[in-house]
Amino acid sequence: MKKILLAFFTATIIISCNENKTTTNTISTNTVNKTDSIAIKQFFSTALTDGKAYEWLRDLTQNIGGRLSGSPEAQMAVEWGEKLMKEEGFDKVWLQPVMVPHWVRGEKEVANYSINGTKINVPICALGGSIATPKNGVMAEVIEVKSLDEVEKLGEKVRGKIIFYNRPFDNTLINTFAAYGGCVDQRYGGTEVAGKYGAVGTIVRSMTNNLDDYPHTGSMGYGKAKPEDYIPTAAISTNASELLSKHLKENPNLKFYFKQSCETLPDAPSFNVIGEIAGSEFPNKYITVGGHLDSWDLAEGAHDDGTGVVQSMEVLSLLKRNGIKPKHTIRAVLFMNEENGLRGGKKYAEEAKLKNEIHVAALESDSGGHTPRGFSYNGTKENQELFMGWKSLLEPYGLTDWHTGYAGADINPLKNETVTLSGYKPDSQRYFDYHHAATDTFDKVNLRELELGSAAMASLVYLMDKYLDVEPVKK
Amino acid sequence: MKKILLAFFTATIIISCNENKTTTNTISTNTVNKTDSIAIKQFFSTALTDGKAYEWLRDLTQNIGGRLSGSPEAQMAVEWGEKLMKEEGFDKVWLQPVMVPHWVRGEKEVANYSINGTKINVPICALGGSIATPKNGVMAEVIEVKSLDEVEKLGEKVRGKIIFYNRPFDNTLINTFAAYGGCVDQRYGGTEVAGKYGAVGTIVRSMTNNLDDYPHTGSMGYGKAKPEDYIPTAAISTNASELLSKHLKENPNLKFYFKQSCETLPDAPSFNVIGEIAGSEFPNKYITVGGHLDSWDLAEGAHDDGTGVVQSMEVLSLLKRNGIKPKHTIRAVLFMNEENGLRGGKKYAEEAKLKNEIHVAALESDSGGHTPRGFSYNGTKENQELFMGWKSLLEPYGLTDWHTGYAGADINPLKNETVTLSGYKPDSQRYFDYHHAATDTFDKVNLRELELGSAAMASLVYLMDKYLDVEPVKK
């Protein structure tokens, strides 16, 4: 029955594409029509009954796993993506070379302290980009703070100490990305400030809503610090953070010990993986859909961002399988190095500029693979009304949250005066339970939620291709 | 900081309640106002930072577990709910006696068949209400069908056979409850039809979107069948269904064997568990919020319906902790026996009628504990506009799906010409992965998703209490 249904729908789509030939050059907020509803329904039906993304994700996460830039696993993932898109029969599939930072974790980190004669072992992991501790680790008294400002105010008082950033997520924020945004300065920038005043290390409360026993890694930066002010930094679990905070009240002089042997090697060669379906009318104008192929080393990189990777490839697959002939060239880009450098995203935009590849639009999926809620819009005022008009077509599929705002790190370098950027926004409630921690594994992804996302993204790309123009603004 | 925030909000709420005294008797679609926004924000903030439902659920699911009507676990759950609501300090907590069906599964079921000399073991479970097979089981050729109609048409040809209902969920339906609704006649009513024509048993494809290895149980009925036409019925996993279907094509004469020793014992005494906060203006008028306390025996009854139970109790807790003094009496009702008899829901409505307890409204949570999407409305035309007007207050929390429709099995017996019934509608994508199967366990529930639901439900009850009237329609 599945095959009969598919054949029926494919026929419908081809007919409706022809029907629409006359309207494809008209831009209007009111051009969304029944043909679009039918096409969109078909993307969802194909994805939900015969989608491929879930099995692709199983393969990527369980057979390759964590794939940090520069690692052998990242290279395996590159080859995997290239092979898969070739097998899908996209018109062109190739690798775009890019040099990436190459940070390695080294031996498993160790942390502990003693309180009232009891030794407490602390779940800890180095932050990406951090230097190692001295070979025998670092041990010092701890100053707990809630902000970088607090460290600035303490100034020289932090010398010789370990700074413990312990500002928790604001769990009253409904969108968990907002809570993350309100805390992540501690992880990314806390070390630069503490190092400047002579602290010997920093430890950071993991970036998650949850109280759990997993350290959540992520990138950090030394910013403008002088290399002699570089100090090691690591994340500890939220439960350990709560406990340490309690113990520091009991004994403010307790000494915390941690040891890590991570290091930054010379930049390594890697690739963005790109597949495309050639445009029938404007082959030299592009719509890019992408996620990032690299992921942290502690887990399988399922929700971050294996789901975005497989959804992006499936967008092209859904267009192709449903007989859609896009006007513009549609590209799936598996960006390398979003996590600790964004080199892939920058490289892709640079090359597009060099080659005068005009981007009409780009869509990014890097917020996990949970149930769809909507899309963000980042583009011209002129196109905004048009874009928001598409909401009515996708509301029946649960995509009710259409808002202006940031679209995504990897496509942001494409930003210019004409391009439409959009971010796919799934439900965010569970995302930071797994984010950058050992728990970000395939079993946390639900087949239907993932496939609904693929179909929603295919629908948006279909609409962008059909209704967005096209000519760069002349100034 | 948490405590300071709470104190601040509590103060705010008390002030705003007083401010609103003058407007409480006005019914209008436009009375939703800033005070309501503040109250609602506070329900969410309390639930997300200091909610209790998650730990209550852990206790119910992990320390009691599955709690089918009439079982010792069901009695433990009754005592658990009563104790908990007393500890919460509700104004009145009591047990409402109700006689319930008492079906027991007996020994673990067995099913298998042989094909090409290989024995295939089939994951199987008896359906609730089914009779046992003969002591040594039943073995017969299988007729695969997709509908009850098909069996009616086969008529006498089914005599001596096992009927295999194998119509799968329509996975293109976005709301998975619609897919369930489109299939569940096979489970509930398939046996009555097959037994009438002399089949010796029925097996049913499990009611789930997924291909998995778990049999999903659920209730069945013999309807108007004569007792001599009663035949045993069971569910088999979806993977096993696919395989059996394939094997039947290879060998239409293969013989399927299954054995089950379930039986229906005499009705047993049990209880609805009821807690209430007395109304300040209309203590004899009621708003009920509830879920069902009983659950199938194969799992922990987490999403079905442990989440509804703890959310319902937390609604009262959230009102109380935020200083809300409701006008009407607000009741949390933990209904017994939703799964295989609905005796608790019927009893509650009967007693309400007998005691002339006028119900202004009732809200049910029995669709799982996933991220909130909206509410259904089932009431008068007059109140519909008012109700739908509340959407704007809850949209910021992700509740965008407000529609008219069925509210829930346990509160449906309260339906009359004046009452407003509503069903809490969380995201449905994952629900049937776990429904009535061994996988419906505590770890499938996410703290934030659960607590967002409690807060959404508290918000709706607050609005219903404040704006819905009140007088029964005089005819």
Automatic annotation (TrEMBL), chains A, B:
Cellular localisation: Endoplasmic reticulum; Golgi apparatus; Lysosome; Secreted
Keyword Thylakoid: no
Biological process terms in GO annotation: proteolysis
Keyword Nuclease annotated: no
Keywords on record: Carboxypeptidase, Endoplasmic reticulum, Glycoprotein, Golgi apparatus, Hydrolase, Lysosome, Metal-binding, Metalloprotease, Protease, Secreted, Signal, Zinc, Zymogen
Molecular function as annotated in GO: carboxypeptidase activity; metal ion binding; metallodipeptidase activity
InterPro entries membership: CPQ, Peptidase_M28
Stated name of the protein: Carboxypeptidase Q
Organism encoding this protein: Urechidicola croceus
